[in-house]
Write a structure and sequence with these properties.
This protein is mostly helical. Helix content is 80%, strand content 0%. It has 3 helices and no strands. This is YggT family protein.
Amino acid sequence: MNALLWLFNTIIQLYIYILIASAVLSWLIAFNVVNLRSPVVSQIGEFLYQVTEPVLRPIRNLLPNLGGVDVSPVILILLLLFVQKLVSDLVIQLAY
């Protein structure tokens, strides 16, 4: 059971890192630090978009318009951390 909990926690942590990378890349693109015409940046951006957008879109639809600020990654990270803690606590309670 510990191995499954470790795998679950690792997958959530990796997804949180992907969310952070997606947010940082979007800032770098917005401030013209990186160029989307570069094939490597374009492929990385497309991968991050395809992995994060299906989860972020429903959160964005629920949130009111905050202007140019997108807080959906922060909300998703908080939700993922909550689920991670909840599952860990449940597994620990079931084990004892």
